[in-house]
# Entry
Amino acid sequence: MSPAPARQAGPAEDEAYTPDPRRWKALAVCLVVGFMTLLDVSIVNVALPSIASSLGAGDSALQWIVSGYALTFGLLLVPAGRFGDARGRRQAFLLGLVLFVLASLACGLAPSSGWLVGARLLQGFAGGLLTPQVSGLVQQLFRGAERARAFAALGASIGLSTAVGPVVGGLLIAGAGEDLGWRLVFVVNLPIGVVALLLALRLLPADPGGSKRYDTDPVGVLLLGAGVGSLLLALIQGGLPWLYPVGVLLLATWVLWERRYARSGEPLVDLALFRRAGYSSGALVAVLFFAGFTGSFFIYSLHLQGELEYGALGAGAAFLPFALGSAAAALAGGRLVTRLGRPVVVAGLVLAVLGFAGTWVAAQLVPGRGLVWAAAVPLLVAGVGSGLVITPNITLTLSQVPVRGAGTAGGVLQTGQRIGAAAGIAVTGSVFTSRLAGSGDSAAAFRAGLLVITGLVAAALVVAVVDAVRGRAAV
# Structure
């Protein structure tokens, strides 16, 4: 019996739909802005040595230049999604874009490391405001097969931002020199952001009005923000283990509060969302998969720039097979998922497991500088698998959500991805560094981290298989 696309990929619609004739142009603007915010996750990593030399930044400041962006980005995703759903996604998008451009300028002009950390926090805040509006606008502007193609384009842009970030950063620094190059890493957002702002004013659909009464649920916002913030800070900063139980306790309190608040008001997140089987399983797949593949970037970079003595540009180029495979497969996956449903995600996870396992084999057989070439094919396979996971999983997961709550649901999903990514980096990084400290063998430490990564992706595969079997049984 074939899968049931209507159940798995058919959108849960709740309002009349009239196609906007400018929807594809509006999508292009959203993709450019989404690309820009994600580029700033990866492009900064290769600029850290130059920032340290130029501003005299210490290890703690450098860590916060990277992690501060991720922290404020992750904290704002759910409240920003709710704000866009209630008050209008166009309004939230434009506000976030203006803030992002100004914060990028502040980063590029930073006279000190403290200034740069503060500007990066604001930049992450703006990115967190923008990101849920992109997925919400895709839900709003498109239906059916067109929506899947739009999410496919979004997935491809994610893959490309991952691919070109380290390379572009390396080229800017190599071409402009260390002192100016790292500033251009941030300033490059200005012309892109200004053009995107002008186009957004013209092309984004007018806000439909949203809720007449915007129920902010301030206690829910504070509890969720404090809980997610505690977990992210513990994962990103390290050395603060007491924040884990605090974060879990705050999130448990948030769940109880949301249930109580729903009796008399409109909670920040309708917890009935998680009773939708397709949404809850898709969110879990996202958490586990992001924990796996994001951790691979971190430890591979440490290994290449450490023992193997690759420069920033060479290390960035080593990720190209994965990122380009992911971008290409995302386009195909977005089209396949409307016909095949969850099995597309299962197939992608199988390829990802095989790719990371193959990378382990390559690291075992070629422990020296030739690893970059030996690992290229398995990383390409893992990247193709990633492209068949991320975009189709987003499409399937958000298809369970009414359009009026698309921003909030997208914010919850992406918050899970951010927590998963932070957890993956923390766990695989800890395994890598502890093994390296114990043996002094970077290659062995890299292989140990790859085993953890493969296990996390395999766990995501189990969840996806269970969901696919459950969906087949429901037909």
Notes: The chain has 19 helices and no strands. The two ends are 9 Å apart (CA to CA). The mean pLDDT is 85. The CA atoms of residues 72 and 386 lie 26 Å apart.
